[in-house]
Amino acid sequence: MKKTYGFGIIGCGMIADFHAKAIKDLNCGNLIAVSSRSSMNSQRFVNNYGVKAYTDYHELLKNDNIDIVCICTPSGLHMEPAVATAISGKHVIVEKPLEITLKRCDKIINTCLKNNVRICPIFNSRFSDSSRLIKKTVSDGRLGQLILGDVFVKWYRSQDYYDSGDWRGTKDLDGGGTLMNQSIHAIDFLQYVMGPVKSVQAFTDTLAHDRIDVEDVAVASLKFNNGALGVIEATTAVYPGSLKRFEFSGTKGTIVMEEESIVKWDFDKEKNVDKEIRKKFSQNNSGGGVSDPTTISHVNHFRQMTDFINSIEKNEPHLIDGYEGRKAVEIILAIYESSKFGKIVHLPL
To answer: Between β-strands 217-224 and 253-258, what pairing exists: parallel, antiparallel or unpaired?
Structure first.
């Protein structure tokens, strides 16, 4: 029987609510305390969840009833609380991205290893039923030789969205724009299915928003280690936005997924189960974050936390460790470098 794990949350902005809801649904989790620089945000958690609130996260980390800490601060402020959490001997869950530079990612990973605690970056898109099915199907070889792997994240964010926080749209705290903030989940899932990226060539620009110093549109061509090619299209500038779309194409089949709905499931050799899969997964959307980031579900956060706790209980690897969480950041940084210098960039960086 699992023990009950005490949770803390550092950073009480919008995404922290998804962590809190997921923790509440765990039969072995209990949210103990939160920490925030904003008294208004922390008080909201006190009112909604009945937890203790700290203004200094170092005080939260002294609470012996907390076993796992969720880092929900702005992206470029993940490293410091994550490192302090690891040094305190508590396991670490970090909202995406793990951090905004590889050096800062590696500092988190290495500190967790040194202090014998686990690190779990949030890439919850891997945990939907349709995502799991696609990963298994491609790994089983039903698409034959992989030829193309593409993702399209054509979303909309208003100017008010970027103006709502002094960290939004900044290189120092957001780390990037539509790629690092909105599309990173999709980029992670693309490389998870297709395998490692060998090289990228890209363009990025800021076309529709004011007072931001990051991209709101990006197009990148990819070459994967297995020889397949791919495309990433990402933006926060197109109204009203569309569901994110994945296309996986091979010599023996094609799979297309929009958000969590599988809209194309065709193979050269039909199996009895295929008809049922098309029926079951054709209307499987959670809503997505097309034009409003608050409309996503917390269910896949819950599933990833469950996987993480199970790994702690069994002393086994979990699906997304620090090295897995680092991969999408590296791809995005390669895209930025390619766009900046107008050249093909090879990975690893």
So the answer is: unpaired
Taking the C-alpha atoms of residue 310 and residue 29, their distance in angstroms, rounded to an integer, is 12
pTM of the shown model: 0.97
In whole angstroms, give the CA distance from residue 144 to residue 280: 24
For 258, the enclosing helix (H) or strand (E) is: strand 253-258
φ, ψ of residue 314 to 5 degrees: the values are: -95, -5
Could you check whether the bond before residue 348 is cis, i.e. omega within 30 degrees of 0?
Answer: yes
Cβ-contact 316, 181 below 8 angstroms: no
**Does residue 1 register a pLDDT over 70?**
no
The residue behind tokens 């097309």 is: 290
For residues 200 and 335, give the distance between their C-alpha atoms in angstroms, rounded to a whole number: 6
What are the tens digits of pLDDT across the range 194-235? 999 999 999 999 999 999 999 999 999 999 999 999 999 999
ω into 196 cis (within 30 of 0): no
For residue 289, pLDDT over 90 is answered with: no
